[in-house]
Amino acid sequence: MIIKKAFWLFAVVVLVLILFLPGYAKLKHLKDKNRDLEARIRKLNIENSLLSQELKRLENDPLYQEKVARDKLGIVRKGEIPVRIFPEEKR
Prior knowledge:
About 80% of the residues lie in helices and about 0% in strands. By secondary structure, it is mainly alpha-helical. The chain has one domain (about 1-75). The chain is elongated and about 105 Å long. The mean pLDDT is about 90.
């Protein structure tokens, strides 16, 4: 009689595991994915904030505008002669 009860208890435990284990694995996967997405959102918010600061600086600071135009766009003032220095090629 005790063996029969132990067998049924074991069968119920196995059945519960079979029913709930896939759901638990899916829940864990979704929690991990949510954590990763929240970290990505934080990173993107920081990047967005930095870009907003740069935009404000570009809109309001003429010296910074000139620096960016010269560095990134290669713009020169009238009368200036642009000079480019290329590194020596290794032979």
